[in-house]
Prior knowledge:
Chain A is built from 7 helices and 9 strands, in the order ββββαβααβαβαβαβα. By secondary structure, the first copy, chain A, is α/β, with parallel strands linked by helices.
Amino acid sequence: MHFTSEQRLDGDVLEREFTLGEIPGILWTPESASASAPLILICPPPLGLGKVYSRLAGRARYYAAEYGFASATLELPGSGDRPRWAAADQARADLRRVMEAGEPVTDEIIDALVLPLVDRAVPEWRAALDDLLALPGIGGPVGYEGGIISIGVRMAAVEPRIAAANLFAGSLVPAAIFEEARQVAIPLHVLLQWDDEGNPRQAALDLFDAFGSKEKTLHANMGGHAGVPQYEIDAGARFFARHLS
Amino acid sequence: MHFTSEQRLDGDVLEREFTLGEIPGILWTPESASASAPLILICPPPLGLGKVYSRLAGRARYYAAEYGFASATLELPGSGDRPRWAAADQARADLRRVMEAGEPVTDEIIDALVLPLVDRAVPEWRAALDDLLALPGIGGPVGYEGGIISIGVRMAAVEPRIAAANLFAGSLVPAAIFEEARQVAIPLHVLLQWDDEGNPRQAALDLFDAFGSKEKTLHANMGGHAGVPQYEIDAGARFFARHLS
């Protein structure tokens, strides 16, 4: 992990861009942090970090200023300036085609779209975690949030350093990932948009039901995919504060 | 409304018992209240105020100490020392009989059990509200929470002084009340226990879906009817703080 830039943001937050091999990422740390601030991994949506920077940085600054958490994000495989791969482009084209035709999204399309992304992304996030936890001022425990729900399921199931996860309930979840959800045992906070145009409600409720965790909370709010209310940022932070402090 | 006793509780909260006609109730006010503290109506479960006092008083003291809210509760018709009536006893006996026999709970039983209680309770709570809002130190706006979900639906639908309601999703909801839910327009915060032995999950989700409110949030947690996590008290208080402050 190499730091490539550094700036101080309002509210005594230090923002550092880094690269992990070829992968760009950003780390936000509270300047007043104790020797071992908890760390939140904020997985971005697959739109490129440039496009979602202000949303991610807003959360990270809030977490730092209000709760003393450090936060980090990493560009997903195939997003932003990272190389795309032919199979992923094909899967996206297939999905677009059936959705525009009003045809059902088959398991084959979902698997082709999501599984290779999960298989590539999860080892990258785990490698980033190795380096992040070795930095001075970051001691864990670690929370995970955001991104594509299937990456979150795999991370929560396989990475023992993650103590709690805040996930956005989505559909387009491969059957294999749905089974992995049953293995998840850490506390979960799950957001659901009640009228999410791209995520059928029942599929999201079924996934919530499938998680093996004894402590899991679902927060459902009105509106579509982009309509998560502002107050849910604080609800998520309080969830992390209960489990990471 | 006549005050019958008064005591100071830890945390600078004044607790006063009162009677409204023949109906006993309790009012809790923060001693440091401004000229017009918001008021939370805490509807009790139908077990008698004596049995649920410590739970209600705990919430009221928290609301007063942390948020500066006043709170009030009122004994439900047929609960505690209030006179029972034959039709209610019969409806309860019918419900017990079919549940013990594993038979379906019919609409007739639900209507007989719930509708007369709603019809009696709602005018009492509205009358209490008249008197409570006339007291010095209580200025509204008013939040409503707790109790039997059907009373909450009717109160939220018909009482314009209630600005926000925090409800516990339940079943045994008469079809007429389900229709009234569509008329509710105020912000709602709805709690659901995912494995509530007495409240089928789908019925609770259907009721949440039916509410007409543009702003409604569902918080679902694991466990049975009595397993609502402690942190939901604060989540409810924050909901009220957003809408009553």
